[in-house]
What does this fold into?
Amino acid sequence: MGGIFIISFFFMVVGMTTVVSWFFGGAAPFARPQRIFFALIWLFLVGGLFRRVVGVFGGMQSRLRAQDVQRRHLMADIAHELRNPLAVLQGRLEGMLDGVYPRDEAQINAVLQETRMLSRLVDDLRTLAHTESGTLALQKEPTDPGVLINDAAASFAGEAVERRIRLDVHAAPDLPLIEVDPLRIREVLTNLISNAMRHTPERGRVSVNASANAKSIVVSVADTGAGIAAADLPKIFDRFYKGRASRGSGLGLTIARNLVVAHGGEMRADSVEGKGTEVTVILPLQPPPPPQ
It folds into this structure.
């Protein structure tokens, strides 16, 4: 884009010089009315180019302002999210030093859990930064999506039995191989199934379905939980957004969607309050072309 503007600017200057020489000089092979005619045409063309240049730079300025506002909001959100676990950690340690809490294994375990939560938050922030900046390195390889889905769901089998939740997995037997990073896509599936399990009551159902069409693999994770209010549904992929019953960092769905987008796919959610939520992941069979 910058090269185009440089070339256009060069021809604009050369053309303007030519027009001036035509208009005022005596060596040009055009009569004065013809010079005026060509000058008007050139001014019209230059005016259109100038408007385009102004429009592009105006758009760039608007995007830079929006990015600056987004960066400020992100920094404020990060500070808020880090402050909570650090405050709990500091309070427990001070309480142990002051004799408010006993220095026993239970208190040490509680402090350890807070440090683990803090570590997970830092990892999530790092992954989020890489996915949003486009610097995340994906280790793609031909992968059987059916195996990936069944493996991800199997890790929740024990919890499903314990909480009497029916966990159904239906993956079409003829699903084609797809070129993905299996660890990252498993991370996406694990996040979606974990969310569904968390919001599904006892004796509810979580369904994981996978099918293929001519262009993509379609995976859906549905639950019979409380659902999401219509006003909240557009916000669930926003970073740090938390529902009323959420206990996480508010980054899981944001990271999951960014990972899917990094594979050239898309993620969407549908929900009916009081009936449940379904999140759908669409992954292309052919990997997207590398960015120019």
Remarks:
- Residues 227 and 276 are 4 Å apart (CA to CA).
- The first strand starts at residue 141 and ends at 143.
